[in-house]
Amino acid sequence: MNELILIRYGEIFLKGGNRAMFERALVDNLRRAVQGQNARVERTHGRMLVWPGEAGAKKLVRALERVFGVSSISVARVLPREIEAIYAAAVDEARAASAGQKLSFKVESRRADKRFFPASPEISKQAGARIVEALGLPVDLHHPQFTVGIEVGFEHAFVFAEHIPGPGGLPCGVSGKVELLLSGGIDSPVAGYLMMKRGCSLSATYFHSPPYVGEKSKEKVIALAKKLAAWQLADVRLSVVNFTAAQKALRDADPEGRLAVVLYRRMMIRVAERIAREHKAQALVTGEALAQVASQTLTNLSTIGEAAGLEILRPCLGHDKLETIAIARKIGTYETSIEPYDDCCSLFVPEHPETRASLEAVQSIESRVDLDALAAGCTVEKLTIPPAR
Ligand code: ATP
Ligand code: MG
Predict the structure, then answer these.
(1) Which are the contacts of 204, defined by CB distance < 8 A and separation ≥ 6?
(2) Which residue has the least CA distance to atom 1 on ligand 1?
(3) Which numbered atom of ligand 1 lies nearest the CA of 295?
(4) For residue 105, what are the β-bridge partners?
(5) Whose CA is nearest to atom 18 of ligand 1?
(6) Which ligand is nearest to the CA of 344?
(7) Site residues for ligand 1, CB cut-off 6 Å
């Protein structure tokens, strides 16, 4: 059987020049997703078509399901534009989809070539009648258990019954670049995913404090970056910052330690901002969620944000932890994130940290150190992390 993969995207939201840019980026990303598999990606009237090579459609679908901007996917039969052949294929698709059960269905038709006769409503009606006659299935136009799709293009017709959801969002790259502060936790990889889903391409910065934080923590972050790279369909540039000296200096300046996490986070922001600018990234991204822990109260988030000269995006801000966990599971980062290795933020921190760190209090401690020298003294190891297979 001759088959092809039909890709739908959120065309209704797109207008003018945006649309052309979006479609170009989507084609590029689809090509990258199926690279090396001898498949051909083609753009037609409000759809993308992927012609599979010898590997067959099924294997490609798994890769295409991960491309942002894709709203849904169908593996379709490819037919000549002959109406009887189309009706027969609709019956075959309905037979396969219902698998012997009395499932309700409807038929939806669409013609890219408006000169094709009969018109779409008539095609749906006739195909539906054939299915009722051959299989005795009930029609339900409002809540069908499956839908048979018929699309008539300029060269072929496509018939399918399967609709596989895509991740939605916008193709990676169309919204510009961001720098993710990536820890080994659950939240920051999800934050990175959410920004990629809105069209951002991502590089990441991880703050590492050896020997207090072990090599295992760094390996965990590298594993997470690999998973994010797979969603991005491109390498992630990971900057590993040696944060030990800066953390010690801040600890010595604030022996009581109640402001420690806020001080560390402000320093992270300064260093990440420098790296972001090198990468031409326009914003920083963190996994902070409002009031989840002491450092994430509204007051502390403002005090942290004050250190930034770039916008800080916090896409998990309004999530419950359980919502973030559900996304982490879906995108495949959860299992890695829960490996029990430390993060540098828990170093030299008292049991009851300050939940209302005023800017004055923080700045008074910062005045005891040379902030610029501390930030400049953080050495950075640059890694290129390829997508996980
Ligand atoms: P996560 O699960 O992402 O670690 P969290 O809920 O544990 O988040 P924190 O540990 O307070 O919260 O960190 C808040 C945010 O600060 C993280 O989401 C991340 O963006 C950033 N961050 C914390 N530690 C590091 C680190 N070692 N390197 C880079 N970014 C970090
Ligand atoms: Mg954490």
Answers:
(1) 179, 180, 181, 182, 192, 225, 228, 236, 237, 238, 239
(2) 185
(3) 11
(4) 139, 146
(5) 287
(6) 1
(7) 181-183, 185-188, 205-207, 268, 286-288, 292-293, 295, 343-345
- Distance (Å) of CA 195 to CA 176, 225, 283: 10, 14, 11
Which atom, in ligand 1's list, is nearest to the CA of 243? Answer: 27
Sequence letter at residue 364: S
Give the ligand 1 atom nearest the CA of 185: 2
Task: Find out if CATH 3.30.2130.30 is the number for domain 3-165.
Answer: yes
Can 3-165 and 177-385 be said to share one CATH topology?
Answer: no
Burial level of 188, CB count in 10 A (0-12/13-18/19+)? buried
Query: What are the CA-CA distances from residue 375 to residues 28, 93, 137, 245, 270 (Å)?
Result: 38, 62, 69, 10, 7
What is the Cα–Cα distance from 127 to 113, expressed in whole angstroms? Answer: 18
Q: Which ligand is nearest to the CA of 286?
A: 1
Full pLDDT tens readout for the chain, 389 residues: 699 999 999 865 677 778 888 999 999 999 999 998 899 999 987 889 999 988 789 889 999 999 999 999 999 999 999 999 999 999 999 999 999 999 999 999 999 999 999 999 999 999 999 999 999 999 999 999 999 999 999 999 999 999 999 999 999 999 999 999 999 999 999 999 999 999 999 999 999 999 999 999 999 999 999 999 999 999 999 999 999 999 999 999 998 889 999 999 999 999 999 999 999 999 999 999 998 877 789 999 999 999 999 999 999 999 999 999 999 999 999 999 999 888 888 888 888 888 898 999 999 999 999 999 999 999 999 999 999 88
The tokens describing 164, both together, are 């596989």
CATH architecture of structural domain 177-385: 3-Layer(aba) Sandwich (3.40)
Task: Delimit the domains of the chain by residue range.
Answer: 3-165, 177-385
Closest ligand 1 atom to the C-alpha of 180? 20
Q: How many whole angstroms from 326 Cα to the centroid of ligand 1?
A: 18
Give me ligand 2 centre to Cα 61, in Å: 34
| Ligand 1 binding pocket mutation candidate from 345, 346, 349, 380 (most atoms within 8 A of CB) | 345
